From TrEMBL:
Organism lineage: Bacteria, Pseudomonadati, Balneolota, Balneolia, Balneolales
Domain RNA-binding S4: 24-81
Reactions mediated catalytically: a uridine in RNA = a pseudouridine in RNA
Listed SMART domains: S4
Region of interest (Disordered), ranges: 194-217
Catalytic residue list: 148
Function: Responsible for synthesis of pseudouridine from uracil.
GO biological process: enzyme-directed rRNA pseudouridine synthesis
Pfam families reported for this sequence: PseudoU_synth_2, S4
Entry's family note: Belongs to the pseudouridine synthase RluA family.
Name by which UniProt lists this protein: Pseudouridine synthase
Length: 339
């Protein structure tokens, strides 16, 4: 990596606690704690003396110990420019200022570490020459908000910088309506309710988010409503006041309502009810048919930045989500839960 390829360095300070897997190799530990990196890159940084333990240079094989202070300066390569790529897009609305797209599950929204091609942005650049670029060196033209890779649903995309600023302000002032549908394990005690809890990076696994106590993390609020319930599962409608990373998945998991199929947060195994016989076989087949979180951004509403009129969009459930839902309706008849 040459100096010209380096945009900047990012600094990290990590203190090893008794909760960590002690005696783990230094390179393996850091690869699990720092986003968008790998053991190979960690080894290179250690070799170039960008990483120290208690102020000393150590080998990648150094076994971490409780109390170790690890300091790292990792070079951040300047990201390549996003390029147009032909792909099928589900455009549900488009005018001169914006478009609304129904993102497929499995599609990353914009280029980033490990996904420099095949993203929604690459497809959008093929679809149109007009996308906003509100920041210099951006690899996210047009992108106002995001969905996780394996979450499907509606996104609004800006075609010019003024529209981008206006749409972004809607999210900041909570003047945009978003509803999600999710199938979850379990049933809430109340048919409707609100989940709160600050969300921040999981200190034990930097690839995950978690609910943090006190003033740690960022404030997050999720409203839910039970649309249908089954034998130990529910179909929920969810509305966000805030847009934290993995917010719905983290809030639900923290309340023992894991999103069905969510491999990162524990929804990819039978959490409630028997796990034998035909029921076990059914869920095994459903996990295979839907190898992702059963979460869909179903509706999107906002004021047209040009005319001031209210715009409202709805979307059909993707086939894998609809299949799971129908199987639950056919095979998991519930008892009466709510009056």
């Amino acid at each position: 990596m040459t100096d010209k390829e380096i945009k900047e360095f990012k600094e990290y300070r990590l203190k090893v606690s008794e909760n960590h897997d002690l005696e783990t190799r230094l390179d393996k530990f850091l690869a699990t704690q720092i986003e968008d990196t790998s053991r190979t890159k960690i080894k290179e940084a250690i070799k170039e003396n960008y990483i120290t333990v208690n102020g000393e240079n150590e080998k990648p094989s150094y076994p971490i110990e409780e109390g170790d202070l690890i300091e790292a300066q990792l070079p951040i390569p300047k990201p390549p420019e996003a390029t147009p790529e032909e792909m099928e897009l589900d455009i549900v609305y488009e005018d001169d200022a914006l478009l609304v797209v129904n993102k497929k599950a499995g599609t990353v929204v914009h280029p980033a570490h490990g996904n420099w091609s095949g993203t929604l942005v690459n497809g959008l650049l093929w679809h149109t020459d007009n996308l906003s670029e509100p920041e210099e060196d951006t690899i996210r033209p047009g992108i106002v908000h995001r969905l996780d890779k394996d979450t499907s649903g509606l996104l609004v995309v800006a075609k010019d910088d003024q529209t981008h600023r206006t749409l972004s302000s809607y999210f900041e002032t909570k003047d945009i309506e978003r509803t999600y549908w999710a199938i979850v394990w379990g049933t809430p005690d109340e048919k409707e309710g609100t989940i709160t809890g600050n969300i921040g990076r999981d200190p034990h696994n930097r690839q995950k988010m978690t609910v943090r106590e006190g003033d740690k993390g960022k404030e997050a609020t999720t409203h839910y409503k039970v649309l249908e319930y089954f034998d130990h599962l529910s179909l929920l409608e969810l509305k966000l006041e805030t847009g934290r990373t993995h917010q719905i998945r983290v809030h639900l998991a923290d309340n023992n309502l894991w999103v069905f199929g969510d491999q990162k947060y524990g929804g990819d195994s039978v959490r409630y009810g028997s796990n034998t016989g035909s029921r076990r076989s059914m869920f095994k087949n459903l996990f295979k048919a839907l190898p992702r979180q059963c979460l869909h951004a179903k509706t999107l509403g906002f004021e047209d930045p040009q005319t001031g009129e209210q715009m409202q969009f709805d979307s059909e459930l993707p086939d894998d989500f609809a299949h799971v839902l129908q199987m639950l309706r056919d095979n998991c008849k519930p008892e009466q839960l709510y009056s």
